[in-house]
Amino acid sequence: MSKEIVRIDHTFGLDKRSPAEGKTKVVIIISFITMVGEIVGGILFGSMALLADGIHMATHVLAMSISYFAYRYIRRQAKNPTFSFGTGKVNALAGYTGAMMLLVFAFAMAWESVERLIQPQEISYNAAIAVAFLGLIVNIASALILGHHDHDHGDYSHKDDSNFKAIYLHIITDALTSILAILSLFIAKYIGVVWVDPLMGIVGAILIIVWSRGLFTETTSVLLDHQDGEVEGKIRQVLATFDLEIRDLHSWKIGPGIFAGELALKTGSHVHVDEIRQSLDQIKELVHLVIEIDCEHCKE
After folding, report:
1. Residues of the chain with CATH 1.20.1510.10
2. How many CB atoms lie within 10 A of CB 202?
3. Contact 187, 116 (CB under 8 A)
4. At what angle do helices 162-190 and 48-76 cross, to 10 degrees?
5. Most CB atoms within 10 A, among 4, 90, 187, 242?
């Protein structure tokens, strides 16, 4: 006998507006205004430092805009029945895209820094330092707006929100590059060690690559339906209280902090299906579960 258990519909609370969506919008607006100001200022005052940072800021606006679009798409399409397990994986897809963009930015930064080590360029120190401080202030403000965002919202938790992690990582890495730039520019200006500036660029690029790797690995595992060991362990712990054999067990992530599962069980004793269902209900993050039981004496 087999029994399919579907606890709730496939929305899983994803149709509710996430606090991260509104915060991301505010950060995009601030970054966009800064970007326009720097580009216009760079053109009017002939400052290549301002113009270059404005173009750099545009890349972050683009990355965060993708993340914001993902939040809106997840919410608006949450009830679309064509998504077998809801729209939660769009979150991981956006996070993956953000991680890939960070890697591209990092390699571009490293390449430019190596070129400047080989062929040093004249630096307008005062303008460059001012731009670096402006970028740092904008990034600090953005980080404060985003805040420590790991609380629960609706039916799922944002502590596993890959899309939000990508946004936050963009802000933090940009702040890091600003700090390294300020430090290297002061050293170059007052001590005369010009090669420190491109060297700091290489250091910053390496750090961004290292930080992006974790996000890249996390989102890839979600997109490829990797087995989740923690949730599987909880399922096995619950089933250990019953007289049965686990023939097959799969659990995988389908959204921020939410998982689906599939079980194939065999038992020769009298087992009440509702007891198994109610026992597994204590695993709150397991929002969709299919159970197949092979048993001649099971009660409906």
Report:
1. 19-223
2. 19
3. no
4. 170
5. 90
Q: Which residues pair with 250 in a beta bridge?
A: 262
Residues of the chain with CATH 3.30.70.1350: 229-294
- Amino acid at site 284: K
Q: Give CA–CA dist 136/273, Å, rounded.
A: 58
| Burial class for 21, CB neighbours closer than 10 Å (0-12, 13-18, 19+) | middle
Cβ(261)–Cβ(235) below 8 Å? yes
State both tokens at 73: 């798409």
Kindly list the averaged pLDDT for each block of 10 residues, start to end, along the chain of length 300.
51 82 92 86 67 79 92 90 87 92 88 84 78 87 77 49 89 86 84 82 87 90 88 89 85 89 80 79 86 67
The residue among 248, 251, 293 whose CA lies nearest residue 275 is 293
d(CA 174, CA 27): 13
Tell me which CATH homologous superfamily contains domain 19-223: Cation efflux protein transmembrane domain (1.20.1510.10)
- Label residues 130-169 b or e (16+ Cβ within 10 Å = b): ebbebbbebbebbbeebeebeeebebbbbebbbbbbbbbb
CA pair distance 220, 102, nearest whole angstrom: 15
